[in-house]
Amino acid sequence: MGSFYQRKYNSLQYTFAWNLAALLAFIPANLYPIMVVYQLGVPKEATILSGIGEFIDHGLYPIAVIIFTASIIVPLMKIIGLFVLVYKVHTGMRLKPNKHSKIYHILEFLGPWSMLDVFVVALMVTIVELGFVTSVAAGPAINYFTITVIFTMFAANSFDPRLLWDKKEIQSKEKNALKTT
């Protein structure tokens, strides 16, 4: 019986490659400054974690939680979740079918929320622009963070969720293709 949709060719390889690239971009996204605040011409750099600390110091706990969730938790959950799904298909290990489905749908849902941090920095650059007294500029981490989000979206899109339910012989073809690359 034919399927209505075409299969995604080399799904595991593409998903793994995009996800690995996302993980590698996630590291400098958290090490480099995500924004630079200039007060009277003096720059003060802020990483994602130091920015979260600033929000906590000023008692802005809800914003700190949102930024921490969108900038750290969501991308990591998506990266780890995709690695888990690729591993499950590659090894042939099985979860209950509804567990596979839940993991995949959670990863799909998380995708757009990862861009919240980029939106917050863009919003702060727009709002805090106060002329010569104070200004805000995006730091180099914003590029890496954006790349992380885009690559995780590519990874999730390249994953063929039908592989989670395929019979062993289709999975062994994917495994063999992964081994040869």
TrEMBL record:
One Pfam family this sequence matches: PqiA
Domain of life: Bacteria
Native source species: Colwellia asteriadis
InterPro entries in the record: PqiA-like, PqiA-PqiB_transport
This protein's record includes keyword Mitochondrion: no
Subcellular location: Cell inner membrane
Keywords: Cell inner membrane, Cell membrane, Membrane, Transmembrane, Transmembrane helix
This protein's name: Paraquat-inducible protein A
Major subcellular site: membrane
